[in-house]
Amino acid sequence: MTDDSQARIGQIVTDNDVVLFMKGTPLFPQCGFSSRAIAILDHLGVAYQGVDVLQDQSIRQGIKEFSDWPTIPQLYVKGEFVGGSDIMMEMYEAGELQQLLADKGLVPAG
To answer: Which residue ranges make up the annotated binding site?
Structure first.
């Protein structure tokens, strides 16, 4: 793991309000967890940047160290790590993900 990949990940997280590090792309997710994460974000109507970790091994390994979270996908909102698809689903079902995005000014308040 290089400092360069950490810097690149940090830049991606900083430059985008909502970032999903995932396997595949938003149009062609490569795993069920990434697909579920995309479905949640699309349903909420929030603009987000998808980063395909399968295209870059240093990002794939680096994101796990960056967040200290072992699995992918990983969601970041306004630079803060939110969680993986299970946490996203729990937050979504409880209305917490919508509230977080509304609080950050990324979707209209429900």
So the answer is: 31
